[in-house]
């Protein structure tokens, strides 16, 4: 087995691209349309410590309404996705991973079309081998399982990289090693409590971890 048998699967929003501000803007724009509560400026830092379900309760979004809100939100996100930048250090991280001969993919709750549009805009689309979308916010583990089968991947030869507790939980359910990054949607404290295999504060730390894991493959 070689490093080329190692596949790095990334989340998209909050992991590769800094879309928190756009997501917040869209949420507040849709609040009066669907009748849920807007996020006040003084609440933003606190919301980073909450789970997705807790945020839904705080914003008073009824569960049956969530699919409609998400569908509209994804449509709005696609319109402005090119205004969202890759996090600093991400292009170099992706280039380093590719140079090591590792495969890369994306499993995201965003739409595949939006992700591809962003990747092309930033000229990094050629670095990825696949992009899969999990339309159910709480069903990422199911998509990960399907990706494993479709791409013929072995659990212990994968690293999933995400910025939310639900990313850690989805990876655990699929028995996939997971690295959490602290520059995304959720706080470092929340991620640390979730117990990922690795917690990265910078893309450089993540790059080193990935290189070490790939080198350790028999």
Features:
218 residues, alpha/beta, Rossmann fold, six-stranded parallel beta sheet
Q: Can you walk me through this structure?
A:
This protein is an alpha/beta fold. The chain has two domains: 3-18 and 85-215, 3-Layer(aba) Sandwich (Rossmann fold); 20-83. It contains ten helices and six strands, in the order βαααααβαβαβαβαβα. The protein has a six-stranded parallel β-sheet, with helices on both faces. The longest helix has 15 residues, at 20-34. The relative contact order is 0.18. The mean pLDDT is 93.
Main β-sheet: number of strands, strand sense, barrel status?
Answer: 6 strands, parallel
Give the CATH superfamily of the largest domain.
Answer: HAD superfamily/HAD-like
Strand order, sheet with most strands? 3-2-1-4-5-6
Oligomer state of the chains in this structure? single chain
Q: The CATH topology of the largest domain is what? A: Rossmann fold
Overall pLDDT confidence: 93
Characterize this entry briefly.
With 218 residues, this protein is α/β, with parallel strands linked by helices. The chain has helices spanning 20-34, 44-47, 52-59, 66-80, 90-99, 112-121, 140-150, 165-173, 188-194, 203-215, and strands spanning 7-10, 103-108, 130-133, 158-162, 178-181, 198-200.
Task: Give the helices and strands, then pairings.
Layout: E1 7-10, H1 20-34, H2 44-47, H3 52-59, H4 66-80, H5 90-99, E2 103-108, H6 112-121, E3 130-133, H7 140-150, E4 158-162, H8 165-173, E5 178-181, H9 188-194, E6 198-200, H10 203-215
Parallel strand pairs: 1-2, 1-4, 2-3, 4-5, 5-6
Helix pairs in contact: 1-4, 5-10, 7-8
């Amino acid at each position: 087995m070689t490093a080329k048998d190692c596949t790095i699967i990334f989340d998209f929003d909050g992991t590769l691209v800094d879309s928190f501000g756009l997501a917040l803007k869209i949420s507040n724009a849709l609040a009066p349309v669907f009748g849920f509560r807007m996020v006040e400026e003084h609440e933003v830092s606190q919301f980073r410590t909450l789970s997705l379900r807790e945020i839904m309760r705080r914003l008073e979004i009824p569960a049956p309404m969530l699919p409609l809100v998400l569908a509209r939100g994804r449509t709005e996100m696609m319109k402005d996705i090119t205004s969202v930048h890759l996090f600093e250090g991400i292009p170099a991280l992706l280039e380093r991973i590719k140079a090591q001969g590792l495969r890369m993919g994306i499993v995201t709750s965003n739409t595949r079309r939006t992700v591809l549009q962003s990747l092309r805009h930033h000229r990094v689309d050629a670095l990825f081998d696949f992009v899969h979308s999990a339309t159910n916010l709480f069903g990422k583990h199911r998509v990960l399982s399907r990706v494993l089968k479709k791409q013929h991947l072995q659990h212990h030869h994968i690293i999933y990289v995400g910025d939310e507790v639900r990313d850690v939980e989805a990876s655990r359910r699929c028995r996939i090693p997971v690295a959490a990054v602290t520059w995304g949607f959720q706080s470092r404290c929340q991620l640390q409590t979730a117990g990922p295999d690795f917690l990265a504060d910078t893309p450089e730390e993540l790059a080193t971890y990935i290189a070490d894991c790939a080198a350790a493959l028999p």
